[in-house]
Fold:
Amino acid sequence: MNIGLTHYLIVGALLFVTGVVCMASKRNAIGVLMGVELVLNGANLNFLDFARFNETFAMEGMVFTLFVIVMAAAEAAIALAIVLNFYNNHVSVDVDAAEELKG
Amino acid sequence: MDLAEFFFWTVASLTCLSALMVAAAQNIVRAAVWLLFTLAGVSGLYFLLGADFLGAVQLIVYVGGVLILVIFGVMLTAQGPFTSIKTPAGEWAFSLVVGFLLFSLLLACILSTSFETLRPTKVVDDPARARSATDLGLVLLGVDDAKVAGPSKLTMVPQRKRESMSYLFPFEIVSVHLVVVLIGAAYLARAKRRRKEQA
Structure:
Protein backbone atom coordinates (compact mmCIF):
# COMPACT_ATOMS: atom_id res chain seq x y z
CA MET A 1 0.00 0.00 0.00
CA ASN A 2 1.39 3.35 -1.01
CA ILE A 3 1.80 5.96 1.71
CA GLY A 4 -0.26 8.94 0.67
CA LEU A 5 -2.08 12.00 1.88
CA THR A 6 -4.72 10.03 3.78
CA HIS A 7 -2.25 8.26 6.07
CA TYR A 8 -0.67 11.49 7.23
CA LEU A 9 -4.08 13.14 7.61
CA ILE A 10 -5.18 10.31 9.91
CA VAL A 11 -2.06 10.76 12.07
CA GLY A 12 -2.77 14.50 12.22
CA ALA A 13 -6.40 13.86 13.19
CA LEU A 14 -5.31 11.48 15.94
CA LEU A 15 -2.87 14.05 17.33
CA PHE A 16 -5.61 16.68 17.27
CA VAL A 17 -8.13 14.45 19.04
CA THR A 18 -5.69 13.32 21.73
CA GLY A 19 -4.90 17.00 22.32
CA VAL A 20 -8.59 17.80 22.73
CA VAL A 21 -9.08 14.87 25.12
CA CYS A 22 -5.99 15.98 27.04
CA MET A 23 -7.34 19.53 27.35
CA ALA A 24 -10.75 18.28 28.46
CA SER A 25 -9.67 15.65 30.98
CA LYS A 26 -6.53 17.02 32.66
CA ARG A 27 -7.01 19.06 35.79
CA ASN A 28 -3.38 20.13 36.00
CA ALA A 29 -3.01 23.43 34.14
CA ILE A 30 0.30 22.31 32.62
CA GLY A 31 -1.42 19.16 31.36
CA VAL A 32 -3.94 21.37 29.59
CA LEU A 33 -1.01 23.23 28.02
CA MET A 34 0.40 19.92 26.77
CA GLY A 35 -2.96 19.25 25.12
CA VAL A 36 -2.73 22.59 23.31
CA GLU A 37 0.73 21.64 22.04
CA LEU A 38 -0.63 18.35 20.70
CA VAL A 39 -3.45 20.15 18.87
CA LEU A 40 -1.02 22.61 17.27
CA ASN A 41 1.24 19.77 16.18
CA GLY A 42 -1.68 17.98 14.56
CA ALA A 43 -2.55 21.16 12.64
CA ASN A 44 1.09 21.63 11.59
CA LEU A 45 1.26 18.06 10.35
CA ASN A 46 -1.78 18.73 8.17
CA PHE A 47 -0.16 21.87 6.74
CA LEU A 48 3.04 20.06 5.81
CA ASP A 49 1.02 17.11 4.54
CA PHE A 50 -0.77 19.30 2.03
CA ALA A 51 2.51 21.07 1.24
CA ARG A 52 3.92 17.70 0.22
CA PHE A 53 0.92 16.29 -1.61
CA ASN A 54 -0.55 19.44 -3.18
CA GLU A 55 1.75 21.19 -5.60
CA THR A 56 0.14 24.61 -5.43
CA PHE A 57 0.54 24.68 -1.65
CA ALA A 58 4.18 23.60 -1.65
CA MET A 59 5.84 26.62 -0.07
CA GLU A 60 2.82 28.15 1.65
CA GLY A 61 2.37 25.10 3.85
CA MET A 62 5.93 25.44 5.11
CA VAL A 63 5.57 29.19 5.73
CA PHE A 64 2.34 28.71 7.69
CA THR A 65 3.91 25.90 9.71
CA LEU A 66 6.80 28.18 10.60
CA PHE A 67 4.38 30.87 11.77
CA VAL A 68 2.38 28.36 13.82
CA ILE A 69 5.56 27.10 15.50
CA VAL A 70 6.55 30.65 16.48
CA MET A 71 3.03 31.35 17.77
CA ALA A 72 3.09 28.10 19.76
CA ALA A 73 6.35 29.11 21.42
CA ALA A 74 4.87 32.49 22.36
CA GLU A 75 1.70 30.82 23.64
CA ALA A 76 3.66 28.34 25.78
CA ALA A 77 5.71 31.15 27.33
CA ILE A 78 2.70 33.31 28.21
CA ALA A 79 0.65 30.33 29.45
CA LEU A 80 3.44 29.17 31.76
CA ALA A 81 3.81 32.71 33.09
CA ILE A 82 0.10 32.75 33.89
CA VAL A 83 0.34 29.31 35.52
CA LEU A 84 3.26 30.42 37.69
CA ASN A 85 1.37 33.56 38.69
CA PHE A 86 -1.67 31.48 39.53
CA TYR A 87 0.47 29.12 41.59
CA ASN A 88 1.90 32.08 43.49
CA ASN A 89 -1.61 33.16 44.44
CA HIS A 90 -3.38 29.86 45.02
CA VAL A 91 -0.56 27.35 45.82
CA SER A 92 -2.13 24.95 43.32
CA VAL A 93 -2.22 24.35 39.58
CA ASP A 94 -5.64 22.73 39.62
CA VAL A 95 -7.74 24.45 36.98
CA ASP A 96 -10.86 23.81 39.05
CA ALA A 97 -9.46 26.17 41.68
CA ALA A 98 -9.37 29.01 39.16
CA GLU A 99 -12.80 30.36 39.92
CA GLU A 100 -11.75 33.98 40.16
CA LEU A 101 -9.50 35.86 37.80
CA LYS A 102 -8.18 38.32 40.39
CA GLY A 103 -5.98 36.49 42.85
CA MET B 1 7.42 -2.84 1.83
CA ASP B 2 10.16 -0.39 0.98
CA LEU B 3 12.17 1.75 3.34
CA ALA B 4 9.93 4.84 3.20
CA GLU B 5 6.85 2.82 4.13
CA PHE B 6 8.71 1.09 6.93
CA PHE B 7 9.86 4.43 8.35
CA PHE B 8 6.39 5.91 8.02
CA TRP B 9 4.68 3.06 9.87
CA THR B 10 7.34 3.00 12.61
CA VAL B 11 7.40 6.75 13.22
CA ALA B 12 3.64 7.20 12.86
CA SER B 13 2.76 4.39 15.27
CA LEU B 14 5.34 5.66 17.77
CA THR B 15 3.93 9.18 17.53
CA CYS B 16 0.32 8.06 17.91
CA LEU B 17 1.14 5.80 20.86
CA SER B 18 3.05 8.57 22.64
CA ALA B 19 0.24 11.06 21.99
CA LEU B 20 -2.29 8.64 23.49
CA MET B 21 -0.03 8.14 26.49
CA VAL B 22 0.20 11.93 27.02
CA ALA B 23 -3.57 12.00 27.39
CA ALA B 24 -3.67 8.83 29.49
CA ALA B 25 -0.82 9.54 31.92
CA GLN B 26 -1.92 10.63 35.37
CA ASN B 27 1.50 11.81 36.50
CA ILE B 28 2.39 15.13 34.90
CA VAL B 29 6.12 14.34 34.62
CA ARG B 30 5.38 11.12 32.74
CA ALA B 31 3.05 13.06 30.46
CA ALA B 32 5.92 15.48 29.76
CA VAL B 33 8.21 12.58 28.80
CA TRP B 34 5.55 11.13 26.48
CA LEU B 35 5.14 14.60 25.00
CA LEU B 36 8.88 14.60 24.27
CA PHE B 37 8.52 11.38 22.27
CA THR B 38 5.46 12.74 20.48
CA LEU B 39 7.21 15.95 19.41
CA ALA B 40 10.29 14.03 18.26
CA GLY B 41 8.05 11.67 16.27
CA VAL B 42 6.26 14.59 14.64
CA SER B 43 9.62 16.02 13.59
CA GLY B 44 10.44 12.62 12.10
CA LEU B 45 7.20 12.81 10.10
CA TYR B 46 8.26 16.29 8.88
CA PHE B 47 11.52 14.78 7.63
CA LEU B 48 9.56 12.04 5.89
CA LEU B 49 7.39 14.70 4.24
CA GLY B 50 10.49 16.34 2.78
CA ALA B 51 10.44 19.40 5.03
CA ASP B 52 13.98 19.14 6.36
CA PHE B 53 14.22 22.69 7.65
CA LEU B 54 10.93 22.52 9.53
CA GLY B 55 11.87 19.17 11.03
CA ALA B 56 15.00 20.76 12.42
CA VAL B 57 13.02 23.78 13.63
CA GLN B 58 10.55 21.43 15.32
CA LEU B 59 13.38 19.65 17.11
CA ILE B 60 15.05 22.89 18.21
CA VAL B 61 12.00 24.93 19.15
CA TYR B 62 9.69 22.28 20.54
CA VAL B 63 11.95 19.60 21.96
CA GLY B 64 14.68 22.03 22.96
CA GLY B 65 12.61 25.02 23.96
CA VAL B 66 8.93 24.55 24.69
CA LEU B 67 9.36 21.19 26.41
CA ILE B 68 12.12 22.56 28.67
CA LEU B 69 9.78 25.42 29.51
CA VAL B 70 6.99 22.97 30.33
CA ILE B 71 9.28 20.86 32.51
CA PHE B 72 10.44 23.97 34.37
CA GLY B 73 6.79 24.84 34.88
CA VAL B 74 6.16 21.36 36.30
CA MET B 75 9.15 21.62 38.64
CA LEU B 76 8.26 25.12 39.83
CA THR B 77 4.67 24.22 40.61
CA ALA B 78 4.90 20.67 41.95
CA GLN B 79 4.23 20.25 45.64
CA GLY B 80 5.70 16.76 45.83
CA PRO B 81 7.91 14.57 43.67
CA PHE B 82 5.03 12.50 42.31
CA THR B 83 2.13 14.89 42.27
CA SER B 84 -0.90 13.80 40.33
CA ILE B 85 -4.24 15.54 40.40
CA LYS B 86 -6.80 12.81 39.88
CA THR B 87 -9.50 13.31 37.31
CA PRO B 88 -12.93 11.99 38.28
CA ALA B 89 -14.03 8.92 36.33
CA GLY B 90 -17.12 10.67 35.02
CA GLU B 91 -15.11 13.45 33.41
CA TRP B 92 -12.74 10.88 31.94
CA ALA B 93 -15.59 8.92 30.38
CA PHE B 94 -17.21 12.09 29.03
CA SER B 95 -14.02 13.39 27.45
CA LEU B 96 -13.28 9.95 25.98
CA VAL B 97 -16.73 9.84 24.39
CA VAL B 98 -16.30 13.35 22.99
CA GLY B 99 -12.84 12.47 21.67
CA PHE B 100 -14.08 9.27 20.07
CA LEU B 101 -16.95 11.09 18.37
CA LEU B 102 -14.60 13.83 17.12
CA PHE B 103 -12.14 11.28 15.78
CA SER B 104 -14.88 9.36 14.01
CA LEU B 105 -16.10 12.58 12.42
CA LEU B 106 -12.61 13.54 11.22
CA LEU B 107 -11.95 10.01 9.98
CA ALA B 108 -15.23 9.94 8.05
CA CYS B 109 -14.38 13.30 6.48
CA ILE B 110 -10.86 12.20 5.52
CA LEU B 111 -11.90 8.84 4.11
CA SER B 112 -14.87 10.17 2.17
CA THR B 113 -12.88 12.94 0.48
CA SER B 114 -11.20 12.20 -2.82
CA PHE B 115 -7.78 13.78 -3.22
CA GLU B 116 -7.32 12.44 -6.74
CA THR B 117 -7.09 15.86 -8.36
CA LEU B 118 -4.15 17.01 -6.26
CA ARG B 119 -0.73 16.65 -7.78
CA PRO B 120 2.07 15.88 -5.32
CA THR B 121 5.06 18.19 -5.09
CA LYS B 122 8.16 16.95 -6.80
CA VAL B 123 10.85 16.29 -4.25
CA VAL B 124 14.36 15.91 -5.59
CA ASP B 125 16.37 13.16 -3.96
CA ASP B 126 19.73 14.68 -4.87
CA PRO B 127 20.99 16.39 -1.70
CA ALA B 128 23.03 18.90 -3.67
CA ARG B 129 19.90 20.26 -5.35
CA ALA B 130 17.33 19.87 -2.57
CA ARG B 131 17.39 23.24 -0.87
CA SER B 132 14.14 23.55 1.01
CA ALA B 133 15.56 26.07 3.50
CA THR B 134 16.79 28.34 0.69
CA ASP B 135 13.46 28.08 -1.08
CA LEU B 136 11.67 28.95 2.14
CA GLY B 137 13.85 32.02 2.65
CA LEU B 138 13.25 33.19 -0.92
CA VAL B 139 9.51 32.75 -0.52
CA LEU B 140 9.60 34.74 2.72
CA LEU B 141 11.41 37.52 0.88
CA GLY B 142 8.97 37.33 -2.00
CA VAL B 143 11.74 36.89 -4.53
CA ASP B 144 10.42 36.02 -7.94
CA ASP B 145 12.12 32.73 -8.57
CA ALA B 146 11.86 32.94 -12.35
CA LYS B 147 13.83 36.18 -12.46
CA VAL B 148 16.55 35.42 -9.95
CA ALA B 149 17.35 31.77 -10.11
CA GLY B 150 16.23 30.87 -13.55
CA PRO B 151 13.96 27.95 -14.35
CA SER B 152 14.35 24.64 -12.51
CA LYS B 153 16.84 26.09 -10.03
CA LEU B 154 14.34 26.09 -7.17
CA THR B 155 13.60 22.45 -6.65
CA MET B 156 10.49 22.57 -4.52
CA VAL B 157 8.80 25.64 -5.96
CA PRO B 158 6.33 24.63 -8.65
CA GLN B 159 6.95 26.03 -12.08
CA ARG B 160 4.09 28.47 -12.21
CA LYS B 161 3.84 32.21 -12.34
CA ARG B 162 4.00 33.57 -8.82
CA GLU B 163 2.33 36.89 -8.22
CA SER B 164 5.45 37.77 -6.18
CA MET B 165 3.64 36.85 -2.96
CA SER B 166 5.78 38.07 -0.09
CA TYR B 167 5.58 36.82 3.47
CA LEU B 168 8.09 39.35 4.76
CA PHE B 169 5.51 41.55 6.48
CA PRO B 170 3.80 38.68 8.35
CA PHE B 171 7.25 37.43 9.28
CA GLU B 172 8.15 40.81 10.79
CA ILE B 173 4.84 40.96 12.66
CA VAL B 174 5.41 37.47 14.03
CA SER B 175 8.92 38.28 15.21
CA VAL B 176 7.87 41.53 16.92
CA HIS B 177 4.93 39.64 18.43
CA LEU B 178 7.30 37.02 19.82
CA VAL B 179 9.53 39.68 21.40
CA VAL B 180 6.55 41.47 22.98
CA VAL B 181 5.10 38.22 24.28
CA LEU B 182 8.39 37.08 25.79
CA ILE B 183 8.90 40.43 27.55
CA GLY B 184 5.32 40.25 28.80
CA ALA B 185 5.82 36.67 30.02
CA ALA B 186 8.99 37.64 31.87
CA TYR B 187 7.12 40.54 33.49
CA LEU B 188 4.15 38.34 34.39
CA ALA B 189 6.23 35.53 35.88
CA ARG B 190 8.60 37.75 37.86
CA ALA B 191 9.36 36.63 41.39
CA LYS B 192 6.94 38.02 43.89
CA ARG B 193 6.51 37.45 47.57
CA ARG B 194 4.04 34.62 47.93
CA ARG B 195 0.81 35.53 49.58
CA LYS B 196 -0.06 33.84 52.87
CA GLU B 197 -1.56 30.43 52.28
CA GLN B 198 -5.25 30.90 52.43
CA ALA B 199 -6.73 27.76 50.95
Observations:
- DSSP finds seven helices and no strands in chain B.
- The longest helix of chain B spans residues 52-77.
- The CA atoms of residues 39 and 183 of chain B lie 26 Å apart.
